[in-house]
Amino acid sequence: MNPLKKSNSNQTINLDRMETVPSIDSTAMIGRISDFHSQCSSAWIQSNNIELPTQHSKCNHIAIVGMGGSAISGNLLKDLFQDQSSVPISVIRNPRLPKWVNEDTLVIASSYSGNTKETLTAFDQAIKRGCRVISSTSGGTLLERSKALNLPLLLIDFAGEPRSAIGYGFLNLVSIVSTLGFIPNQHAFVASAIEQMKINHGNWHHQVLSKYNYAKKLAMRIGYNLPIIIGYEIFESVARRWKTQFNENSKTLAIWEVIPEFLHNGVESFQSTPDCTPFPMVILLQPYSSESQQGGPLMHLLEFLQAVHLPYELVTVHKEHNLSQVLSMVQLGDYVSYYLALLKNIDPGPVSIIESIKSNQDNR
After folding, report:
1. Annotated domain spans of the chain
2. In 3-state terms, what secondary structure has residue 2?
3. Peptide bond into 260 cis (omega under 30)
4. Distance CA 299, CA 322 (A)
5. Beta strand 312-315 with 255-259: parallel, antiparallel or unpaired?
6. Protein fold of 34-185
7. Which bin fits 336, alpha (ψ -120 to 50), beta or left (φ > 0)?
8. Model confidence over 190-206: pLDDT tens digits?
């Protein structure tokens, strides 16, 4: 028998005991997760109070430069608006800018700390090439350089881990592309999304008992199994966000895939699972759309999983517009990864290995 799968049945942490949270969560991350709707509201208000140069709206390409959680915000934006944007949107996770990035490109440098080396290097290249540059940061060198050059600047007014500031990271970007007219005005959509996230918080926060709390139930289903998160349509990058939250919050190995690409390669591995490998738990993130509800590749995968008896969870949120669905699914993933950390008696806040690697790089 797979030892990891067996240990899943021996959970000792009770998610419904209120003392569980402070005894494990040393940085009180639950407060930041619970306050996600308020963070999004503050981010939207602040970002829309920034005046942007009208000439920036004449760019023919948007390049979002960042790493980690800052880059994820760019991916969410791209997935959500690639069919609505009047110009292409690209996300660059690299210190070297592609050759096509030029004076007609809007470069958005996104770094929570403002000290991300790769982002700063790309920022300097963008300045040298004469790009139209906007920064989104909480401080650091990026803030200093942006102010010195009198560049448009959207501040991230948030205290916590970079991954917990995704409300600012994402909505700063939405505000920029909406204000400059690359996508339709998003005020009404953001407002309704925030109201929905308040409802979600009421359903998923830590004081709601497990039998009524879907986020806790899903975390318990995953347990010590290997989560394979598969995103479809607008949830492609949300699946990636879930994966990185499992990595950082739960210290859990996780895999993310997207449909239909997964059906052309990864699905072939779902044949037999040797005892020496972690047992997979497939998590399908399904948006409410005509295609996903009436068949298509996601339903084909669902039928296959049922045929081979692999455990899976089909995850949906509410039947609202796409922006609200994306923010709600991000919110759910944060709660699930947090509860999974508690189940494993793991402090979700510290990321000691990441910090150690960053420190070693800085000392070189």
Report:
1. 3-26+205-343, 34-185
2. coil
3. yes
4. 20
5. unpaired
6. Rossmann fold (3.40.50)
7. alpha
8. 999 999 999 999 999 99
